[in-house]
Amino acid sequence: MSWDPAIYNRFKSERAKPFYDLLALIHNREYVDVIDLGCGTGELTKQLADEMLKARVLGIDSSVQMLNASSVFGNSRLRFEQKSIEAQIGSAAKWDLVFSNAALQWVENHSETFPKIISSLNPGGQLLVQIPSQHHNLTNKLLKRLSDRDSFRTLLPSGISNSPVLELEEYAALLFARGCKALTIFEKIYPVVVPGIRELFEWVSGTAIIPYLENLPQELHGQFNDEFEQLLQENFDVNPVFYPFKRIIISGIF
Ligand SMILES: C[S@@+](CC[C@H](N)C(=O)[O-])C[C@H]1O[C@@H](n2cnc3c(N)ncnc32)[C@H](O)[C@@H]1O
Q1: I want to staple 45 with a disulfide (CB 3.0 to 4.6 A). Which of 26, 59, 97, 210 is the partner?
Q2: How far is the CA of 145 from the centre of ligand 1 (A)?
Q3: CATH of domain 5-134+162-195+244-253
Q4: Do the Cβ atoms of 203 and 11 come closer than 8 Å?
């Protein structure tokens, strides 16, 4: 997918808030082998590495555009690789901490993905993940509604709006079944407060809208964007716009 770090970073401080909640949940700051799945620009991976002074941290991401921005953050304890999460979790490498902020929602089939990730943990290791509650958030539902319209439906892959994100109870059961010894799972609202619909549209442009535009011909991008902005207008009718965006935080120690 074509990620644009400049667009993504427009709401940098809002997007970083759940990252700090994850940092607060790190079980053992002496962990050595640490991986950040879907590290993006690497700016937050650098903060993760700075928190864990004994750690050797690897950030992986499939996007060249996002990783280009990471070159300034690498050091003797922090390196980055262009790699997909799917390829990484299929490898034999083992980790003390598998960390991932706002990336696993892009990976299909969490019932298979999470067990693979868990099996890459060393004994005593931790899985620490944040994913948006895509299946409940209104902007995702509006994108789905829009993609079902005649002008777009036949051009988009079927199932494009199906989120892989599971319910909290399902993650809890899945982790418990794989031997999780200490489990923390909760959903939290991270309010997005922006002056108007244009800014809300820009906020979604940094992430969730990307796969839709990638699958539509360039000449339909304007129409898709305009109709999406119209849907936002109809559903968020007060200024400033308040969007109670929900995210899932998962911590498991194994
Ligand atoms: C919303 S950004 C989060 C970036 C970073 N973790 C942060 O908190 O700023 C999602 C990142 O996941 C990456 N990504 C999405 N699907 C991926 C996949 N299948 N494999 C590797 N990276 C992926 C994207 O390239 C993007 O950089």
Answers
A1: 59
A2: 25
A3: 3.40.50.150
A4: yes
